[in-house]
Amino acid sequence: MLFKQQVWLRQKLLVLGSLAVGSLLYLVARVGSLDRLQPVCPIEGRFGGTRSQAEFPLRALQFKRGLLHEFRKGNTSKEQVHLHDLVQQLPKAIIIGVRKGGTRALLEMLNLHPAVVKASQEIHFFDNDENYAKGIEWYRKKMPFSYPQQITIEKSPAYFITEEVPERIYRMNSSIKLLIIVREPTTRAISDYTQVLEGKERKNKTYYKFEKLAIDPNTCEVNTKYKAVRTSIYTKHLERWLKYFPIEQFHVVDGDRLITEPLPELQLVEKFLNLPPRISQYNLYFNATRGFYCLRFNIIFNKCLAGSKGRIHPEVDPSVITKLRKFFHPFNQKFYQITGRTLNWP
């Protein structure tokens, strides 16, 4: 009798399990079929170049993300690469900076778009002489596999402030799209300091207070030799880039707004990159525990940024903050004038 009850219970569990799996597969298929009703996206004329005139359904690219993930892990052969028409393309857009402006968040959020493929690591090709000497083919092979209709984006924040980079990128592609994500300069400088401080503390090393680094003790003025301050003078670095690229090839992303209202900023980037609007509020949800928006790719896969994001800043003397903001103000005004975008900075 006991044996019959066990068999009956096992059969019931198998039936329930099958129903659960079947329901999940139906939901996935249903979402896919609904999305496939979206209009196809022409890519002719993107980025000003002559590309294939074929059209492609964005949802088809979305469903192939799993295959691309396997390629990134190295679980593939040359035959599979050829079979699926995959390539490693040079980037059509680069997030060139700014350090601690939100470059990682921007890259991960743009990767929500099915026509975008991201380079997972900072490659540091253009700002590292040793890497640059390896040649453009080495750089291309550092890019992820993608379909010809997709665009590859990489980010290396040091590009923005490194003198040799604008000319080097220009030599590769004079029509490339350039993304700059910035935060209020004083906040960015403190965030920069906080990251360095955390690294020192992990190694049980002492470090100066922010005030001592940001203010020259001899003159009591802002210390422009301090890298965290110098990086926040955005207009100085941008002027160097403008010797090679017209302002129309740049797009400024408000890094402060990307934290609180990411969707409008991402929609502006989609427009700048000539991508059809595909990132929606569905893809972004606020995580109250982390205090940041997380990413929803589909009904199964969600992703939050690394725990190192959103470090708590140390308290800084208010008079130093006031002095820094007064110092940055004229540079900010010039930055607004050059870029045509006014940001809500004090």
Automatic annotation (TrEMBL):
Positions contributing to 3'-phosphoadenylyl sulfate binding: K100, G101, G102, T103, R104, R183, S191, Y293, K309, G310, R311, I312, H313
Cystine pairings recorded for this chain: C294-C304
Compartment list: Golgi apparatus membrane
Listed EC numbers: 2.8.2.-
Coiled-coil annotated residue ranges, if any: none
Residues that span the membrane, as ranges: none
Pfam families: Sulfotransfer_1 (PF00685)
Domain Sulfotransferase: 91-335
Family: Belongs to the sulfotransferase 1 family.
Protein name as annotated: Sulfotransferase
The organism of origin for this protein: Fukomys damarensis (Damaraland mole rat)
